[in-house]
Amino acid sequence: MALKIVETSLRDGHQSLMATRMTTKDILSIVPELDKAGFHALEVWGGATFDACLRFLDEDPWERLREIKKLAPNTKLQMLFRGQNILGYRHYPDDIVEKFVQKSIENGIDIIRIFDALNDIRNLKSAVDATKKYGGHCQIALSYTTSPVHTIEYYVKLAKEVEEMGADSLCIKDMAGILLPDDAFKLITQLKKNTKLPINLHGHATAGIMEATYLKAIEAGVDIIDTALSPLSGGTSQVSTESFCYILKDTKYDPKLNIDFLNQAAAKLTVIKDQAIKDGTLNPKALTANPSILEYQVPGGMLSNLMSQLREQNQMDDYEKVLKEVPIIRKDLGYPPLVTPMSQMIGTQALMNVMTQNPYKIVSKEIKEYLHGLYGKAPAKVDPMLLTKIIGDDKVITHRPADDLKPEFENLKKKYGDFAKSDEDLLSIALFGKVAISFLEKKYKQTHEPRKEVYAFSVTIGGDAS
């Protein structure tokens, strides 16, 4: 059966290599060719793209989506959705999750890929239910990592649960690029035996093994892979789309993409990439393979973030110590996968442990909230001595964290209804607070005067929404 391919250049490609700085103008210049190439889907939205539009590019992410949709009548559009975190960094109440899903589909999204950093499927339910309600394709992604608890049996069990939950397809999301070829063959083989869901493998080329991993996954029957157009492939991004077209040409897996349209799109994207290298947006180091991540299991984006923080503290000599601290903290915390927001939280804790030379002397607010259960259920038992040391006898919640959150959307309407022009504006404010308000003030050339009513979220675990 022909393999299906999701093209990621316009979301994960530039998020992984260019800090998500491709402008809407640049993106729209490439969409027509990609739309004619024959992809299963184009991943164009979600992840960090929404935040980057508002915070750095002064662009409306909703307008970007609508414009892409106009230029892609033949291909499904896909987005990445962080479960109860939506596209932000804290848990949002169910009414915000449902409204965001509804508006994403209305504005052009066909496939919503939903994941949770801890693989706690309770944190997926609200987004899954909304996607089904509003007619979208619901793809549930399981964050891939390795640990004593992250076995093939663990992923098969979760796959059965998400199939029962109503998923239309399943994704194995290897954000660090650490899934070894033979492990991929065994994992995909067992998933195909135990679920009827189409299986999508999402991997990064960071460690330099992903081409081999994809080939073994294809042998095992994977249905869909994610690739990026060659100028934004390799390194911390996905493997090259064109390369896989040639690898699979004239085999039973041949995706039969139109190479002429791919070449036309790649030529345009090369100009954008060259400019990004010239102005420093793209560091060429991000394009090289880094097999050392297979030892520490650290995603490429997290590595670059750690190096940046160490340079700021003039502590680059501690780089290896920090890397060695990461797996220790993961074990202490119950082996959470290193994906947003857990990767940032654990990376920062590793830095603090090394710099103070006294583990957990300083603990971030987010780690404390994780230990209180506010992010969901840890994959494995948290070290009991560490738990007592940090939160003492505090209550640890065992129910779904969002059950404690009160609805917010109607309160947002009351507070911002005379300023925001649409429900989409209100959702931007719900997720990114002051950042979104500042953007909308510039967009509408209107200063927002906050009303006197006090408005507060029930739980805040990151971000700066107000």
UniProtKB/TrEMBL annotation:
One of its GO terms (molecular function) is pyruvate carboxylase activity. It holds the Pfam family HMGL-like. Signal peptide: none annotated. Gene3D superfamilies: Aldolase class I. One of its GO terms (biological process) is gluconeogenesis. GO terms for cellular component: cytoplasm. Transmembrane segments: none annotated. It comes from the Bacteria. SUPFAM superfamilies: Aldolase (SSF51569), post-HMGL domain-like (SSF89000). This is Oxaloacetate decarboxylase. It comes from Mariniplasma anaerobium.
